[in-house]
Inverse folding.
C-alpha cells in the first residue's frame, strides 16, 4: 500500500504462517503518566524479522520492517519508553500464536488506513490511525 509521504512500507502478508515470538511497544510518558495506547508496536516473528506498526504525520498507518528503537528523553515533553512488558494492548494475548490472515485497507490520498491480523482461534487485531494516534482493537 503506497503512502504518498512514507512510501509502501513492507508487505505485512509475509507474517502469515509465522509465529509471533516477541512483541515490543513504545509508550509516551509525561509527568509520570503513560499514554493510553502504544505509539509503536513491533511484532518479531519466528523468522527473526521485525514488523513495526505505527502512524505517520499525515495520519496514515505505517507498516515497515524495522527493529525497535531505543527509549529516549524529550525534555519538557516527557520521554518515550520502549519494552516488552510496559503496558497492555490487544497483540499481547497472541504472543506465541501463528498469524493466520492479514488484510490491509487503504485510500489513494493517504495510503494504508487499517491493518487486520487474524489468528487461528478466529480472534483478530485491527490497527488503524485514530486522530493521528495508533489504535489497536479486537
Amino acid at each position: 500500500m503506497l503512502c504518498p509521504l512514507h512510501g509502501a512500507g513492507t508487505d505485512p502478508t509475509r507474517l502469515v504462517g509465522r509465529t509471533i515470538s516477541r512483541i515490543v511497544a513504545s509508550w509516551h510518558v509525561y509527568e509520570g503518566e503513560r499514554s493510553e495506547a502504544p505509539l509503536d508496536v513491533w511484532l518479531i516473528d519466528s523468522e527473526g524479522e521485525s514488523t513495526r506498526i505505527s502512524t505517520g504525520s499525515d495520519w496514515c498507518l505505517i507498516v515497515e520492517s524495522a527493529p525497535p528503537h531505543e527509549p529516549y528523553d524529550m525534555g519538557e515533553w516527557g520521554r518515550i519508553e520502549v519494552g516488552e512488558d510496559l503496558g497492555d494492548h490487544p497483540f499481547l494475548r497472541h504472543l506465541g500464536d501463528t498469524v493466520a490472515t492479514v488484510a490491509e485497507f487503504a485510500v489513494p490520498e493517504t495510503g494504508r488506513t487499517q491493518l487486520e491480523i487474524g489468528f487461528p482461534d478466529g480472534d483478530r487485531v485491527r490497527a488503524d490511525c485514530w486522530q493521528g494516534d495508533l489504535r489497536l482493537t479486537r
Notes: The chain has a mean pLDDT of 89. The CA atoms of residues 32 and 78 lie 9 Å apart. The two ends are 22 Å apart (CA to CA). The longest strand covers residues 20-30.
